[in-house]
Design goal:
Shape: globular
Oligomer: single chain
Helix content: 25-40%
Strand content: 15-25%
Largest sheet: 5 strands, mixed
Structural class: alpha+beta
Order of helices and strands: EHHEEEHEH
Radius of gyration: 16 Å
Strand order of the largest sheet: 1-2-3-4-5
Length: 154
């Protein structure tokens, strides 16, 4: 009998798979691919610092394959005068969606926020990703419209 699908904290040995999933995620969102050394960068952020800001959670299929991930870290809201947990990425491979793993990943991110003493999680998704928007709406999340800008410093 196969184990049930589950969500757990990423381990160092998961990082090449997380990096591959991040590349799939970037392609899905029509974005440039991640850095070629992403697994090493994530390893340094997650495992080579005494108190890592970044958390990475992985979703495993019933067969034990890592099929999705979520990453999050604390950020600060000046207007609210408090920190919140920012979920930077949430991704499940095509063919594994609709099995409850997305909700489990979000639950794990919420648990991470609580563990850090934070009472809110925020994230974004592309406007065109209506499936994600419906999923988040079903979870009880509410969208706020803004434009997101990026300014390179080099």
């Amino acid at each position: 009998m196969s184990p049930a699908p589950r969500v757990r904290a990423a381990r160092r040995e998961d990082l090449p798979r997380v990096a591959a999933l991040a590349a799939e995620h970037a392609a899905y969102e029509k974005a440039p691919p991640p850095a070629p050394d992403l697994a090493e960068r994530l390893g340094a952020l997650l495992f080579d610092t005494p108190e890592p800001r970044l958390a990475c959670l992985v979703a495993e299929s019933a067969g034990g394959e890592v099929v999705g991930y979520a990453t999050c870290s604390p950020e600060f809201s000046t207007w609210a005068g408090r920190e919140y947990l920012s979920m930077d990425c949430l991704f499940l491979r095509d063919g594994t969606r609709g099995q409850g793993l997305g909700a489990r990943l979000v639950d794990a991110v919420v648990a991470e926020a609580r563990r850090r003493g934070l009472d809110e999680v925020q994230w974004q998704t592309p406007v065109w990703n209506t499936d994600a928007a419906r999923f988040y709406d079903r979870l009880g999340a509410r969208a706020k419209e803004k434009l997101r800008y990026s300014l390179p410093t080099t």
